[in-house]
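Help needed: design a sequence for this.
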């Protein structure tokens, strides 16, 4: 699933192509995504100018006139910038045609993505209103994490993946950040000291920043807006490296199940 670095990579790729552009038209080929694409979008968006592009958690927000197009890439989605006459393929469900002669196309083989419209403040949309802090902002501090974990006995990996606490720390990056911080994924969150919280906050921010710089991770369907793959998967410390030697101490990486997801850690480097 595209996580925060992949969505941020997509946003940065889209900006020079869509910001300030007039929308020449909209094509909906398949409306049945995770939620139905509003049938009135071609009328609503036609002639509008894109004045804002930003990310909230794993959602892309495209500001147009008095409303916002809210996009989510789901499990397998990606956005591409293509010439407007590019033939659509099987899994190409939605096109935003631009006055420049280019288009923004959503490809989503598994159809868990979303294309929604919200008038007014998009952060008040039901899908966004209860989201936690952004991990790459000052709001995500060691003191914030320390206070938020005092009464939480769930495993720390599950806690940092809770989007009501902090957004965008998906499974891959939770594993990698915990390794960098030297913390086992199964440690009860309430056991974290202030110094450990500081270390974990720094590790989450360093991991996400490094992943964004490398274009995210391309394990299945994710590609950038030009079709290129991300490269962060070539730099994993623990994720997907079961029984392989730790790059730091040569101890074999272990794999366990937590919340129906796989966790990976080094029993020597992570206490």
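Sure. Designed sequence:
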């Amino acid at each position: 699933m595209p996580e925060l670095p992949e969505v941020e990579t997509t946003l940065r790729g889209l900006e020079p192509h869509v910001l300030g552009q007039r929308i020449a038209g909209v094509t909906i080929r398949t409306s049945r995504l995770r939620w139905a694409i509003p049938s009135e979008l071609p009328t609503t968006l036609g002639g509008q100018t894109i004045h804002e592009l930003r990310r909230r958690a794993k959602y892309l927000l495209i500001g147009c006139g008095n409303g916002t197009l809210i996009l989510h890439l789901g499990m397998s989605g990606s956005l591409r910038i293509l010439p407007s006459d590019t033939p659509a393929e099987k899994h190409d469900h939605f096109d935003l045609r631009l006055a420049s002669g280019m288009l923004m196309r959503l490809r989503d083989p598994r159809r868990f993505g979303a294309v929604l419209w919200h008038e007014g403040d998009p952060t008040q949309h039901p899908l966004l209103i209860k989201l936690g802090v952004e991990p790459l902002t000052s709001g995500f501090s060691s003191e914030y994490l320390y206070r938020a974990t005092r009464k939480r006995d769930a495993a720390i990996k599950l806690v940092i993946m809770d989007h009501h606490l902090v957004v965008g720390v998906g499974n891959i990056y939770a594993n990698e950040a915990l390794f960098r911080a030297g913390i086992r994924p199964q440690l009860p969150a309430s056991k974290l000291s202030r110094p450990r919280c500081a270390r974990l906050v720094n590790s989450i921010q360093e991991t996400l920043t490094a992943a964004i710089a490398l274009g995210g991770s391309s394990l299945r369907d994710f590609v950038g807006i030009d079709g290129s793959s991300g490269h962060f998967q070539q730099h994993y410390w623990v994720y997907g490296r079961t029984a392989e030697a730790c790059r730091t101490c040569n101890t074999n990486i272990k794999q366990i199940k937590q919340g129906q997801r796989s966790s990976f850690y080094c029993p020597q480097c992570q206490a």
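The chain has a mean pLDDT of 94.
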